[in-house]
Amino acid sequence: MLMATQSPTVVLTLTIILGVLDAFVVSLRFYARSQRKQRLLIDDWLTIPAMALNVGLATTLIHGTARHVYGYATPVPPTQAAASRLLERTSWTELGDNITIAEKDEWIFLLISIPALGCIKLSILFFYQRLFVMSKRDWRDPRNIAIWLMITIVTMWTLAFFLRYLFACGFHFDIWWTNAMNIITLCGDFNTILNALAISDFVCDVIILILPLPAIWKLRLPTAQKFTVTLVFALGGFSTIASMIQNFNPELDVDLLITTFLFWNYLEATTALLAACLPTLRGLFRTSSLDSAIQSLRSRIGLNSKSPLNSSIRKKEQDEAYVLRSLDSERGLAADTPSGT
Questions:
Q1: Higher pLDDT, 135 or 298
Q2: Which of 66, 84, 162, 222 has its CA at 20 to 30 Å from residue 334's CA atom?
Q3: What is the pLDDT of residues 147-156, one digit of tens each?
């Protein structure tokens, strides 16, 4: 039932609302950086192409819905119209033109969605690197290695699926808006590509979602405060759920099934971009619980302490100090405490 509710009204309303929200939070991200006098790094700049590509996805959905392609059930002959009034359907007279429109819009949408998701994933990974890695060239740091490994995987994932989908039919792009038999014969089994894309997308989302958790839970904080900090980095959970939901294959009307797949793909992209930006905005909306967690961490790791420590303990405290200063910076808190080096 959840996936069968993509009526034209729902599709149009949520598409517009989420598109506006994305533009708003990306703008706020740059405003927050400016207010805190922070450098704009690659994690910030990647949100711009991601937002532009999401606008392209929204435009495609709005165009298809306005032309009665998305959100409407498959048309039936006039002789069966009386038995199909439970669903909003494309009229039989619109069928010919709408087939071509649907195929073009679907092809454009899926082509755009791949780099959109790739840019968002990379933005989140580079944001993790900004927070948790002291030196990007420190190849002894397991967090740095893990993040660079995921950056490499996501970059290759984006390029591989984008090029595979773009040139699935060689340079004969018009084959995509002919018929299913031509596509299968000349381009191969398109469903295999989609399944591989959806499953690998979900796996990447899960890994990215859990990647910062070990660093957070190693901090010397009370458990309740660890949950508070974890919540900040769990905002991408809904986008992961969206990527999982689009993998289901319910027995829906074929046109509504296409709408469902594209709609939840759009929800994943837009909510992922929101999740990528919201942690950087928390400095504009401070909450006492996280402030308390940060101040507690500041006192527990003894940043002002000059007592001699062996190198391994000192390194651990330096790492914790770096995470603290990074969290302070994202929160817009004063980070004037010595580094402890």
A1: 135
A2: 222
A3: 999 999 999 9
- How far apart CA 178 and CA 188 sit, in angstroms, is 14
List, by residue range, all CATH 1.20.1070 domains of the chain: 2-224+236-283
Q: Look up the pTM and report it.
A: 0.76
